[in-house]
Write a structure and sequence with these properties.
This protein is an alpha/beta fold. The chain has 20 helices and 14 strands. About 45% of the residues lie in helices and about 15% in strands. α15 (about 340-345) links the parallel β8 (about 330) and β9 (about 355-360). The longest helix is centred in the first third of the chain and has 23 residues, at about 140-160. Bound molecules: S-adenosylmethionine. Pfam families: Methyltransf_2.
Length: about 500
């Protein structure tokens, strides 16, 4: 969040921050949200925040009110003059949005009518959560986390056992039949299912001792890519988190620097191994991870890659195709080819035979096996991106969701291999696409950063991305990001 406005008087220091929205300075068009702070100077009142307020352009979408709440709350923690939570106002917002949602339901399925439904639902849930957090007795908030621990343990185990797959999509199953299909004791399955029913993740079936799916548990069915993401959230997140105290006691209270001796390797009981070596010991987890990376639900997973909706429009590469021979695009660490598939679909001039997919051997083997017709036509290559890039002179090297896994030193090394492979063509680019560190902490962005901490990596912002690019012999042509959106694209050329 950048300071847009700063004024200092003998009595007061005023700061205003742009929080969200889009706004064209030259035309004054758009809608945006701003938060103001007024501080007493240190000499007067020890620099305390004496007033805080937020203001929005009235034209802005109603849902931004909740973003404002998020933007403001982390700062409240450090301020002595915290404005009280306005329960009535929050409840009114909730009611107003509940009426809008209800009206959407009544308006039938006319095309386009439900376009905003997901963001409206999200906004309602966020306000309701804020109300619950602010109104519940403090002890209840603390205890609620204990339920989350058990909830996560229960759905993770049921996913591992594929128990959710055994529940009919329409209908119910008895606990006895489920236990029998799982070769587990009925009483054990019943106790775990009870917790999932208690939190609403499963629903009781029509007869006693039966269960059925809820709208949430359907996402844990193994054919849904969200289940793979959930497994990764547990394996890369929960498992290491649980051992943080011992890890930091052993290695010191500092961030890990390499790929070994990370909270991840420690949590999995193999402190000397790097993530891919650990995954090699657990092929089913490795395969789940690869599947998770294909999920459209991951940050940036449904990101358009060409046209006006794209954060970075790759169409220009298609325009260059006829003017240049050889490889156009190399997707470095490209997994099963999910990004290349989107690219060649969106930019038909980038024919698959001019695109290279690189990854670790086991992933390329899997891509050869499971890749669809389009992906089978790209050039597939085993390659370790820490070593010299074998494809020289491509127009574009793509690195999506790679650098965040690594420390500055290793990330710089990966970039340097690409800087060295770039041709002497002023149009040639290294394009980094990944989740960025938002200026204002929001939970979903913070958890990605902490999972990266587990792996020895980190989320970066414009400044820190620029630092590693420069250290690798690149220059940043442009940093693309939309306010409030965690995805960024960093367009780099040879320095
Ligand atoms: C987080 S995934 C991202 C996959 C893909 N780029 C995407 O955006 O969906 C990281 C990828 O890097 C690959 N990878 C890890 N270490 C590698 C290495 N040393 N060389 C090449 N690929 C590697 C992994 O196998 C995995 O496919």
């Amino acid at each position: 969040m950048a300071a847009e406005h700063f004024r200092s008087t003998p009595d007061q220091i005023q700061l205003a921050f742009f929080v969200d929205g889009s706004w064209d300075r030259s035309t004054g068009e758009g809608a945006f949200a701003v938060v103001f702070y007024k501080f007493a100077p240190r000499s007067k009142d020890d620099g305390k925040c004496v007033e805080m307020a937020w203001r929005m352009d009235p034209a802005i979408h109603n849902n931004y009110a909740e973003l404002m709440e998020i933007a403001v709350s982390p700062r409240n923690a450090n301020m002595t003059a915290t404005p009280p939570f306005n329960l009535v106002k929050a409840a009114e917002t909730l009611l107003e949005n509940a009426r809008r949602l209800s009206a959407l339901g009544e308006s039938g399925s006319a095309p386009g009518v439900n376009k905003d439904e997901e963001s409206l639902r999200r906004s309602i849930a966020m306000t309701a959560k804020k109300i619950a957090f602010e109104t519940a007795p403090a002890i209840d908030v603390v205890k609620a986390d204990w339920v989350v621990f058990a909830d996560a343990a229960a759905w993770n185990l049921f996913m591992e056992w594929k128990a959710f797959d055994l529940i009919p999509l329409d209908g119910s199953i008895s606990i006895a039949d489920l236990a029998s299909a799982l070769s587990a004791s009925e009483s054990l399955v019943s106790r775990i299912a009870n917790l999932l029913i208690a939190v609403g993740k499963l629903l009781p079936g029509p007869a006693p001792g039966t269960i059925r799916h809820s709208r949430i548990s359907l996402l844990y069915v193994s054919s849904n890519t969200v289940s793979a993401l959930a497994s990764v959230a547990f394996g890369n997140g929960m498992k290491p988190y649980a051992r943080w105290p011992e890890y930091f006691a052993q290695y010191g209270r500092q961030e890990p620097e390499g790929q070994r001796h990370t909270p991840f390797s420690y949590g999995w009981g193999h402190p000397d191994l790097a993530p891919w070596e650990i995954k090699a010991l657990y092929p089913s987890y490795a395969s789940t991870f690869t599947k998770a990376m294909k999920s459209r639900q991951i940050v940036g997973g449904d990101m358009p890659v060409a046209g006006p909706a794209a954060l970075y429009d790759l169409s220009w590469v298609g325009d260059e195709a006829a003017k240049k021979e050889g490889p156009l695009v190399v997707d470095v660490g490209g997994g099963l080819g999910q990004l290349l598939k989107d690219v060649v679909t969106a930019v038909p001039a980038m024919t698959p035979d001019r695109c290279v997919l690189q990854d670790r051997k086991e992933v390329i083997d899997e891509a050869r096996e499971v890749g669809d017709e389009l992906i089978q036509q790209v050039v597939m290559m085993d390659h370790d991106f820490h070593t010299e890039q074998p494809v020289k002179g491509a127009l574009v090297y793509l690195l999506r969701r790679i650098l965040l896994d690594y420390s500055d030193k290793l990330a710089t090394g990966i970039l340097r291999q690409l800087a060295d492979a770039l041709p002497d063509d002023p149009k040639a680019r290294v394009i980094i696409m990944e989740e960025r560190l938002l200026d204002t902490p929001v939970p979903q962005n913070c958890i990605v950063d902490l999972v990266m901490l587990n792996l020895g990596g980190k989320l970066r912002n414009e400044k820190t991305m620029g630092e590693i690019a420069t250290a690798a012999g690149l220059k940043v042509i442009k940093y693309y990001a939309k306010p409030g959106d965690p995805t960024c694209v960093v367009e780099c050329a040879k320095a």
